[in-house]
Task: inverse folding
């Protein structure tokens, strides 16, 4: 449904596209979906705050020489290390995946409710096999929880995500923002971030001994960039 020619060209569509459907040559009741080969959102790891903000860049252009489908840290020969470009140098697009337990709700059906306890995020409070719940508010919770798991739990200088995370993961689904409200909240947060903050290296909670080095590196890089821009030395 989301892979029709019209919807695939829609810039708002971040569902992983189905490129082809192949029938099994021995069993015609079995089909295989062909999709792009993707990587986890945080592999390669995020480097600067701007990477956290720009989650819609194109990941397939990050490895100019490609990478091995199993040993993803290596080139196609499975021996030579694959050295990715910085996320800020390329365009990385993030896709929504995992539609194996999705349901279809016709447009005319109201209210739009779902049942089920399956899913990778076990923190969603309303999951139930008996009491219907709003699947869209559930999705808001999952996204907000992802902010905590991937960013807030890993880095110290992304505190600007905390209020949005708390808003999106309230236990009462009715108190959570819908997608438009969450987007508006994010735009307010985004507009408040200084350019220097955006360009600063992410400060790890686990490898905190590295942070002073990265702080100096960030300061030097940003100072050089601002000086070059101010003096008009850029090409």
Result:
């Amino acid at each position: 449904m989301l892979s029709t020619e019209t919807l695939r060209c829609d810039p708002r569509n971040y569902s992983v596209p189905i490129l082809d459907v192949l029938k099994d040559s021995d069993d015609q009741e079995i089909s295989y979906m062909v999709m792009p080969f993707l990587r986890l959102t945080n592999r390669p790891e995020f480097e600067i705050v701007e990477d956290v903000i720009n989650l819609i860049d194109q990941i397939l252009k990050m490895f100019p020489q490609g990478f091995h489908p199993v040993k993803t840290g290596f080139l196609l020969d499975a021996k030579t290390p694959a050295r990715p470009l910085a996320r800020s140098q390329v365009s990385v697009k993030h896709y929504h995946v995992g539609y194996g337990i999705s349901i279809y709700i016709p447009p005319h059906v109201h209210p739009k409710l779902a049942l089920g306890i399956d899913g990778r995020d076990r923190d969603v409070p309303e999951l139930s096999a008996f009491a219907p719940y709003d699947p869209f508010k559930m999705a808001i919770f999952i996204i907000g929880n992802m902010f905590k798991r991937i960013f807030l739990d890993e880095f110290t200088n992304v505190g600007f995500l905390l209020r949005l995370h708390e808003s999106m993961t309230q236990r009462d689904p009715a108190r959570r923002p819908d997608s438009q409200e969450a987007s508006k909240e994010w735009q307010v947060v985004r507009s408040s971030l200084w350019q220097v903050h955006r360009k600063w290296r992410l400060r790890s909670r686990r490898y905190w001994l590295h942070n002073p080095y990265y702080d100096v590196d960030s300061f030097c890089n940003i100072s050089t960039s601002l000086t070059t821009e101010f003096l008009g030395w850029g090409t």
Summary: The mean pLDDT is 78.
